[in-house]
Design brief:
The protein is of the alpha/beta class. It is built from 24 helices and 14 strands. About 45% of the residues are buried. InterPro entries: FAD-linked_oxidoreductase-like, Proline_DH_dom, Proline_oxidase. It holds the Pfam family Pro_dh. This is Proline dehydrogenase.
């Protein structure tokens, strides 16, 4: 226990070493906000190309054509219509294809999907546990879940790897709480023990406070698991589950896969809310300082000591001589001193309390004030417990040579999750990519966020790993923002999200050439065929080959095999998000898969057509009892 506490202390001490200026200001400094980045993607000059300097500004120094990074740039011929049913299902027995077709057909029946919980409850009672489990293995469980434990899933994981597809393992057992239980747990976990104070900079506090009408975070969320706080003991149990998942990755995938982790499972969510509010409030404060620059030096948002006090005065902040240095920490970065408003240095090593961490600037008084009136000893303990668990998991994954994918969550948690994940990268990604962050391209800040984080990784020379997704919480986020009266954090429509995702993909390709080979690795986790095609074309354009293993693709197990397996067999790096767990404990996960497939009828229609084609082909050619043989590619 003492050893783990020491590890937690060492980890938390890293948090303060991260200059918050770089997290917030570089998008403007880089001239690469989403709008300008989107325009850059359409620049098709063969004479002028763009790179990014250490300070983050674009310069015209890229050669007319990108050169191959490793010489492994050959792109094999592949049918990018994804219509080749034979290639898509080479890894499956005919019985598995029949089961898949049956499951997709059942997902198209609205009555069954709408009443699935009642039907499953009745079936469990009528059939008994043994027959019910057998029925689920022959249908939904068998199609969407790999097995119950690491020993059972290993044959399947090994088989799909033989066909070019690796695995991200996720232990998907979860408690099926009622809505009332979920709301109760959420309110208990999201409300601090002390009274919250009004946010003195802007209205962002509304966004980062608990609201009972949105207490059940599962509502309108189909593709992501939700954790609710049930005490520190349960958080420790969740950590042990994740440790077991890391073991499963090491055992079943021979260290070729990932383990998926959610930070809301590891601590009290109120701590993430408060940390997120502090981070976003400081961001707004920097924006106020930015406005004092006018047209002078507008390409840089670094504040030196010589003009910091003047900028504060311009926005109405009056400081007594003895107080101004308590606002800031002074950083010696590159060519001189800079000001960092968020002084989180040596958080635990100097015994700093949580109350000194969770503070925001008050422009009227010229002082930092606490976000919560009183931080209790219990809350201090809970914060240290969450950081201890995060550190324990990252260190264990590093020792096991397993990579960890930190999942993205709701926008009101995400600033804290992103900050903590980047701190984990700074500590554990020094020699190779261990920690991967997740960026949701349906958020308005997605482009800015990943550019800032890649820039930090380059300047501090650690490995950057990321997963790029569209996002899982759109409907819920929109409704919450509209109801509570804060700006909608989500892009206005599907096309805007696609444009955002494609802009990020091209920016990643450019950034790859700014660093030594292998220092940036990004997974494009998408079921959208157009996005996959776009990524492959950009890989060709920028000289990033399948064999470089810098860009990989990801899809859910049991879905979009027509994308995953042809890519994998053509030599691209591809992963399936593979859930596992006991049958009766993964029913909530299966419920979400059924609803998700019902909601994407066009994609499911294509999969059903391809499945029917391949089943018919095998019957016609006498291959009804086909057994998969490892790919020779």
């Amino acid at each position: 226990m003492a050893t783990r506490s020491l590890q937690a202390s060492k980890f938390v001490s890293q948090i303060g070493c991260y200059t918050y200026r770089s997290r917030i200001l570089l998008p403007t400094s880089c001239k690469c906000s989403y709008e300008t980045g989107h325009k850059l993607n359409r620049l098709k000059s063969t004479q002028t190309n763009l790179n990014v300097t250490q300070e983050g500004t674009f310069i015209e120094n890229r050669p007319p054509k990108w050169k191959s990074l490793t010489g492994k740039h050959h792109h094999p011929e592949i049918d990018l219509t994804f219509e080749n049913a034979k290639e898509a299902y080479k890894s499956k027995r005919t019985s598995e294809l029949v089961r898949a077709l049956m499951v997709f057909n059942l997902c198209s029946i609205n009555f069954l999907v709408d009443n699935q919980k009642k039907i499953l409850k009745w079936a469990r009672k009528f059939l008994g546990k043994r027959l019910f489990v057998s029925m689920m293995r022959l249908t939904f469980y068998g199609h969407f879940v790999a097995g119950e434990d690491q020993d059972e899933i290993k044959p399947l994981v090994t088989r799909i790897r033989q066909f070019g597809v690796k695995s991200i393992l996720d232990y998907s057992a979860e408690e099926d709480l009622t809505s009332e239980q979920a709301v109760s747990a959420e309110m208990e976990g999201c409300l601090p023990q002390g009274n919250e104070v009004d946010n003195p900079v802007d209205e962002t506090g509304t966004r980062f406070r608990a609201h009972e009408e949105f207490g059940d975070r599962r509502v309108k969320v189909m593709s992501a698991r939700t954790y609710f706080y049930e005490g520190e003991e349960q958080c420790d149990k969740n950590m042990q589950i994740f440790l077991n998942c890391i073991d499963a990755v090491s055992h079943a995938t021979e260290k070729s896969g990932f383990a998926a982790i959610k930070l809301t499972a590891l601590g009290k969510p109120s701590l993430l809310l408060q940390m997120s509010e502090v981070l976003v409030t400081i961001k707004h404060f920097f924006k106020l300082l930015q406005k004092t620059q006018g047209q002078i030096d507008k390409g840089s948002l670094r504040f030196g000591l010589e003009d910091f006090d003047a900028r504060l005065s311009e926005i109405g902040v009056q400081l007594n001589d003895g107080n101004k240095r308590s606002w800031v920490s002074v950083k010696d970065i590159s060519k001189g001193f800079e000001v960092d408003l968020l002084d989180w240095d040596n958080l635990l090593e100097i015994n700093r309390s949580l109350s000194k961490l969770l503070v925001v600037p008050n422009l009227k008084t010229g002082q930092f004030q606490p976000l919560v009136e009183c931080i209790t000893d219990e809350e201090e303990y809970q914060m240290k417990g969450m950081l201890r668990r995060v550190n324990t998991l990252a260190k264990y994954a590093q020792d096991k040579e397993v990579r960890v994918m930190i999942d993205a969550e709701q926008s009101y948690f995400q600033p804290a999750i992103r900050r903590l994940t980047m701190e984990m990268m700074r500590k554990f990604n020094k020699e190779r990519s261990v920690i991967f962050n997740t960026y949701q391209s349906y958020t308005k800040e997605a482009f800015n966020d990943i550019v800032v984080d890649m820039d930090l990784a380059r300047r501090e020379d650690f490995y950057f790993g990321a997963k790029l997704v569209r996002g899982a919480y759109m409907e819920q986020e929109r409704e919450r923002a509209q109801t509570l009266g804060y700006e909608d954090p989500i892009n206005p429509n599907y096309q805007a999200t696609t444009d955002m995702m494609h802009s990020i993909i091209e920016e990643v390709m450019r950034q790859i050439h700014l660093r030594p080979v292998g220092r940036i690795a990004v997974m494009i986790a998408s079921h959208n065929e157009d996005t996959v095609r776009y990524t492959i074309e950009k890989m060709k354009e920028y000289g990033v080959g399948p064999g470089d293993r810098l860009i990989c693709f990801g899809q859910l197990f049991g879905m979009c095999d027509q994308i995953s397996f042809p890519l994998g067999q053509a030599g691209y790096s591809v992963y399936k998000y593979v859930p596992f767990g006991p049958v009766e404990e993964v029913l909530p996960y299966l419920s979400r898969r059924a609803m998700e497939n019902r909601g994407v009828l066009a994609k499911v229609k294509k999969e059903k057509r391809l499945l029917s084609q391949e089943i018919s082909r095998r019957i016609r050619t006498g291959q009804a009892f086909y057994k998969p043989a490892p790919s020779t590619v």
